[in-house]
Amino acid sequence: MPQGSTVLSFDWNLLQNSCPQFNTLQQDLKADGGSEVCRLLAKAANAAKGGDSATCERLMGIVKQVAWEKLHTGHWKDVRVCWRDLYSVSSIATAAFSKKADSDSSARTQELLRELDLAVLMGGPAYRSHVDAAIATLHVMAQRKVRSPSRSPC
């Protein structure tokens, strides 16, 4: 897969410029002590826009881990929804920029599906439709891998 291309549709420009939830998410994160996470989001966006999908994947993996930690600190009902929404966004981005998802490994595709299923359970409501769309795309990819003829050396 060429550098900068993604397996799933994930457009940073669209997310940042025309998705009011994203601006609200960033404001809410900053209000809850997540300024550094917002800086990581900006770095990941710049990496993606510059065609560096590996850096974007790595940074979004860090963001996802921070969101996961927030979701598991204290009582679940006390966690602000912005951290759940961040978990959704970071799960989608991590899957989208994963070069491994484009490989012939159905095991890796299944792993990405499990990660996105966790985003359905743990993520917030603002990006649920995006998570569902990413899951649907990966299901189609998994079906193609199952249906494609095996590569026999003979």
Uncertain residue segments: 1-7
Terminal Cα separation, in Å? 27 Å
| Number of helices, where a helix is a run of at least 4 consecutive DSSP H or I residues | 7
Question: Which structural class do the helices and strands define?
Answer: mainly alpha
How would you sum up the global shape? globular
Proportion in β-strands: under 5%
Mean pLDDT, rounded to whole units?
82
Number of discrete domains: 1
Main sheet specs: none
Helix content: 55-70%
- The radius of gyration over CA amounts to 16 Å
Element-level helix/strand string: HHHHHHH
Number of strands: 0
InterPro entries: ARM_KDM8_N
Organism: Cymbomonas tetramitiformis
Protein name: DM8 domain-containing protein
Pfam families: ARM_KDM8_N
Topology at a glance:
Blueprint: H1 12-18, H2 20-31, H3 35-49, H4 53-71, H5 81-96, H6 106-122, H7 128-147
Helix pairs in contact: 2-3, 2-5, 3-4, 4-5, 5-6, 5-7, 6-7
Organism: Cymbomonas tetramitiformis
Domain DM8: 25-147
Protein name: DM8 domain-containing protein
Give a brief rundown of this model:
The chain has 154 residues and is an all-alpha fold. The protein contains 7 helices and no strands. Helix 3 runs antiparallel to helix 4.
